[in-house]
Design goal:
alpha/beta; 7 helices; 34% helix; 16% strand
Length: 180
């Protein structure tokens, strides 16, 4: 029998959240989220301006522009931000595509601890576990504990071996770089 190590479920789905954040159009911070039920991905989200509004990096969000130029500090005047958070986008995807009931008992994987508003949404739709990579300055730990949502923080370094393995895959290396 061949010995083979695969990512555990948390590593596997947080890698998907890392990929989702690549679609972010926010100038201030890139965040990705994935909602999973019974080890099946049911929604993804990334932060950025809502559909139909000019992308943040194209000037769609005046607040982010002010923050990038140092006129607003991180966390200040969030009510002026047009960007929707990754977690909120994933939750809205469930509603938009008719699988909103699937969130009860689901796990939310996110590259950053959810803010207060996204935490309230997670509570409201019945998410019971949140897995994160990084910490947001706003601490929602007590709120999540009060509602019995388990929060787990993964060590980002645990993903490096999987990212390295993707790049070392023999099939990957056979593809000429100009034919991707």
């Amino acid at each position: 029998m061949i010995s083979m190590r695969r990512p555990d479920w948390d590593e596997y789905f947080i890698l998907y959240a890392e990929i989702a954040k690549l679609r972010s159009n926010c100038m201030a911070r890139h965040v990705g989220a994935v909602i999973v039920k019974e080890n099946r991905q049911i929604a993804t989200g990334y932060n950025g301006t809502p559909s139909g509004i000019k992308n943040c990096f194209e000037g769609g969000c005046p607040r982010c522009k002010e923050r990038i130029h140092g006129r607003i500090k991180s966390g200040d005047q969030l009510d002026r931000c047009l960007c929707t958070h990754a977690e909120a986008n994933a939750i809205m995807q469930c509603a938009l595509f008719g699988n909103a009931g699937s969130t009860r008992g689901a796990t939310l994987y996110t590259t950053f601890t959810p803010c207060l508003e996204c935490s309230k949404m997670a509570i409201g739709v019945g998410i019971t576990r949140i897995v994160v990579l990084g910490r947001y300055p706003e601490d929602v730990t007590e709120l999540l504990k009060e509602t019995n949502i388990q929060m787990t923080q993964l060590d980002h370094s645990s993903l490096k071996k999987w990212i390295t393995q993707i790049n070392q895959d023999p099939e990957f290396s056979k593809t000429p770089s100009n034919q991707v």
